[in-house]
Structures are given as C-alpha cells and as structure tokens.
From TrEMBL:
Residues 266-364 form the HTH araC/xylS-type domain. One of its GO terms (molecular function) is DNA-binding transcription factor activity. This is AraC-like DNA-binding protein. Transmembrane segments: none annotated. SUPFAM superfamilies: Homeodomain-like.
Amino acid sequence: MAARDRSFCDRLGHQRGVPSVPGQVSFYGPRDRFGASLRRELSTGPKGFPVYTWSTEQVDPRDRFDYWREVRAKGLFGVTAELEPEHRRDFFGEFSLRQLGGAGLVELRASPYRVERRAGDIADAASDSLCIYQQLGGGGWFGGARLDEFAVRDGMFATSYSDLPYRTVPLREDGFHLRIIKIPVTDIVPPGTELGELVPSPVQDETALQPLLESCFHDLVDGNGAAAADPAPMVQALAHIALIERGVMRPKSRLAQQALRTAHLSLARRLIRRHLSNAALTPTLIAGLLGISVRHLHILFEETEMSFSETVTALRLAQSRRLLREQPRQTIAEVAYACGFESLATFYRLFNASESMTPGDYRA
C-alpha cells in the first residue's frame, strides 16, 4: 500500500463505519459502529434535538472525495459514489443527521457526483426502511433497471423503499441539496406488508395527498406543534400518507384514517399561520382550503388541547409578542392589526388575559 493510501486509512481509523444517534437508529447498517465518534460530534439543533453534522472541510483536500465515497457514502448512506479524478480535488460535501422519533432525518448538500445503490450496497447495508425525499435545490435524475426514469425539481418530494437499486445524478452544476426522512418499516406497516416493489417515484403535485405529506414533513423538520415534543406520531402519519399515495395502504383503513386526521390537523395549523393577518380568518375559510367540512375541521381540533378559535388566538398572541420584541418601530395598533385582531380593544383584552400586562409594558 502506498504511503499516501496508508495515511488516508490511518486518518479514517475507527471512524470507518456508520453513525448511530445515541440509543436509537442508524441511517444504514449496524447501530454500534461509529457511536463514540458520533457522540463527540453531536451538537444541539433547533428545538433542542441533538444533531450530528459533518463536512469535507474537516478532511485534507487530496482525500475529500475518497473519504466521502468510502466512509460517508458507503457507511452512512449505503451507496456507491463515483466522480472523475480531475474533479475530486474540488469536491465538497456536508450533511446533518438528526433522530426524529425512531426515524432519521438527513440534510445533504454536495457538489455533483454520480450515486448508485447496488445489490452489493444493499447486502452490506440493508435497511428495510421507507425513504421520503425532498429536493431543496439543483434537481435530480433517477433511473435504474426496475423503475421508469424521472426527474425531481426543486421543492418536489419522492418516496421509495430503501433496499432497492437505483441510480441518480444532479441535474445542475450546483449539485445535490436534499432532505431525506428514513423510517424503519417495522415501525409503520402491519406485519406481512411488503414494500419490495416501492421503487423511487415522485409524489404527484396534483394529488390531494401532496400538501398533507408536505405539511407533516415540514412539521418534523421544523419541530412544529406536537412534533416538537413527540415526533413519533407525526413520523407515523407521514409514512402512512406516503404509503396511501403509493397505493400500499388502503385509505379507509384504521391506520390510514388516523394518518389523514393527523395530516389534516397539521395542514390546518399551517394554513392558519399563513392567513393569520386576515381578520376574516374563519373555520369556513380553512375548511374550504382543506377540502373538508367545517364540522370535520372542528372535530379535528376537538381531539387536541385547544379548539379552532383558541388555536387562532394563541398563534396571534405569539405573533404579537414576536413583533413587539423585534419591531420597535411598529405601533401597538400596527402590531394588533398585523396579527389579525379585529380591534385594538380586543387585542388589549386578550393580551392582558394572556400576559397579565399590557402590550406596552411587555415591549418595555
């Protein structure tokens, strides 16, 4: 072995392998590899979740792609990475990994290279998981022996079963930028359900399920609402919405109906936040946007700690507190109307009841 190759392997040392979020799930492969190294590199991300981050900036430029290919691509993602030798010195890659209620969330950004999940990769790093992807930038092409070729543009979602072969390359020179939530199959499907035909496929924009899947996905990524305290139910709802969209789960089944309720509630809250400044925000407006009845909307909120109107008020008060802190040039009245309160008197009454002080005292 050449001296440079030995040096590279020496630098890899015990880090060659697969990281596991302490005590829980690894993205691919055994749970006990890479554990000590991972714990040293953990930081605290949004909402207090531990986040594992890594970048090729930590590696000698001569070795960056080799390290990425042999340790990160094979060990973490269970794929084979390829890049022409003349482009390897300029290669850049970074990712973050976070646990979400038994699932793993990875965000990856890298300069262009070819990716393939081969039979050997699957044998070495089997996962038995549902993968849900969101393309954040660059776009990507997918192909393989068992699937129709397709491309995903920015913002699109795709789903697949982890242990099937595929090939992918970025569509633009800015490379890869995507998020993946990987959910172990044992946590989401009834015994006997097979996902072996779930080849990579884009989530169709025209389906009514797409905004529901997107809302659940973003609640998990952002740590919104109930997902901040306990991500597991939202992870399960996201997985089941994906399986309904792929035709694996019957929409009328008990698990599917529960997932649809969770997803509709997630999207309802997102729509409320989007229309918060509208003083005419009503259950009728939100129900219409969701495509459900007003009665159905109220039933969704009855299963939570706050009714529809209480949720709207709480979100408006939270928004008003933020504006009072961050926008000192706005008058109290401007803050009130920006948050959708119908009158200044209503804002003062509700703010006093919530904070036991006036908006002016709070700002001071």
